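Tutorial, part two.
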Amino acid sequence: MTESLLQILRRQQPEATAGKVLGVLRVNGEELAVAFAPHHTLLEVLREDVGLTGTKHGCELGECGTCTVLLDGRPVLSCLALALETLGHEITTVEGLATPAGLDPLQQAFAELGAAQCGYCTPGFLLAGKALLDAEPAPSRDRIREALAGNLCRCTGYLKIYEAVELAAQRMRGSPMLREPS
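Running the prediction step on this input gives:
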């Protein structure tokens, strides 16, 4: 019988895990054994314990969307979710969007259309957009606005972001045509 990830962690680092929760997080398709304080948010665990810094600290009040991740395919504000509550669920961060074959169509569209300015809010927009496009392959502009409404950008207007989601949707449906900017 093989040892589980948690058994290995307990055996190798007993002093480092005292007072912490030992759990396996499923992040970007991988199972990761992690020891973390039970009061830590998913945002804290992803950044500090797992080392995935694409998920950004923003307001830490659930108002800006920079910490958005997907939990079982649905957008969640990781600053408001306890990591303990996410055990047994699939977590997708911005680092999990690209594959060895290349960027996700949404990432590609953001890059091509200049939808990211400073980039701080971009991971949240990408993940909220990904959830939308996975659920609705041909969303209207109003539906895109609604789905991204929980994400704030302080650098630019939202037009290029909306256009990037529309372009990615077109490409994902099989149309390589570049949409004319509005």
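The first strand starts at residue 21 and ends at 27. In part three we will examine how such features are distributed along the chain.
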